[in-house]
Amino acid sequence: MPAPISIRLDDDVRATLETEARARGVALATYLRQIATEAARNVRRDRIRAQSAGVGRTAAEHPEARSFFEDWGTPTTHAD
C-alpha cells in the first residue's frame, strides 16, 4: 500500500513545478508522482543496461562464455 511522503521545496522550485503542473492540467502532487515514477523507471532501465553490459564484458573476457554465446544463436522454427 502506498504511503504518503513529505518533502520541502524552495519557494521558487515549488512555483516552477506548480506552473508546470497547471500547464499539464494536473495537481502538483500528481505531477510530482509522475516525475518520481519516470525517474524510478529510468533508474531500473539504467541498472538493467549496466547488468547487461557486465554480462557482455564477462562473455568477451572468458572463452567458455564466448563459446556459449556463439553457439547459442538465433532460434529458428522448422516445418515438419
List the SSEs and their pairings.
Layout: H1 11-24, H2 28-61, H3 63-72
Helix pairs in contact: 1-2, 2-3
Order of helices and strands: HHH
Q: Which percent range describes the beta-strand content?
A: under 5%
Oligomer: single chain
Q: What is the C-alpha radius of gyration, as a whole number of Å? A: 23 Å
What low-confidence regions span 5 or more consecutive residues with pLDDT below 50?
Answer: none
Shape, principal axes of CA atoms:
elongated
Largest sheet: none
Tally of alpha and pi helices: 3
- Helix/strand/pairing category: mainly alpha
- Measured as a percent range, the helix fraction is over 70%
Annotation, overall tally of beta strands: 0
- Mean pLDDT over all positions: 89
Distance between the termini: 51 Å
Task: Describe this protein with a few key phrases.
80 residues, mainly alpha, elongated
Describe it.
With 80 residues, the chain is an all-alpha fold. The protein contains three helices and no strands. Helix 1 (11-24) crosses helix 2 (28-61) and helix 2 crosses helix 3. The radius of gyration is 23 Å and the shape is elongated. The N and C termini lie far apart (51 Å).
